[in-house]
Amino acid sequence: MKKLNILYVRVSSFDQNPERQRVQESKYDKVIEDRVSGAVALFEREGGKELLKLIQLDLVGSVSFWQIDRCGRDLKGIVDFLHFMVERKIPVHFIEQGLSTLNQDGTENPISKMCIAMMSVISEMNRNLIKNSQREGIELAKLKGNVFLGRKPNTKEDPLKFLSKSKNKHAMELLKKNYKSVEISKITGLHINTITKIKKLILAI
């Protein structure tokens, strides 16, 4: 049986456009798409679980990503995934960087391995810088006495506006697919209480 050459596509939310990552999709046998934060481990994502199942069935010939950060945002997660794939002799390609984990003869490509490790570190550093900048921005706003950090006391957020937020929309889709609240919390990063509120609003609509 011919093994599948898979293109894996990931964007962080439902309102982001994945088309740039799909420009060469006609070259592949199958496209798997996830709309989830890169902080979620690849095989814990909905599409990632599908990919893992295909790998376990020995149906995957190769997996391609547009960039390394589509695979993951932390060094350990990326390294663990690539090690998993190398052990199974499944090449992983990063299109924009022009890198492949395995040579034509199935041996590990040491130059690519070094470049991927370096770029994985850079991806993790960028993520940490963004998080630190957000944290510093919040602290600075607090010092300045700004009031945009949350809703004013005794005010209610419009239900439709609340449900239209990208993470909440993602949670609704997962609820429709019968995911458990704990699973949705892990995938979306939402608090369990927020998911409970989404459930109640869906029932009320």
TrEMBL record:
Residues 4-145 form the Resolvase/invertase-type recombinase catalytic domain. The active site is at S12. InterPro entries: Recombinase_CS, Resolv_N, Resolvase-like_N_sf, SSR_resolvase. The keyword DNA-binding applies. It holds the Pfam family Resolvase. Signal peptide: none annotated. Keywords: DNA integration, DNA recombination, DNA-binding. SMART domains: Resolvase. PROSITE patterns: RECOMBINASES_1, RECOMBINASES_3. Gene3D superfamilies: Resolvase, N-terminal catalytic domain (3.40.50.1390). The keyword DNA-binding applies. This is Recombinase family protein.
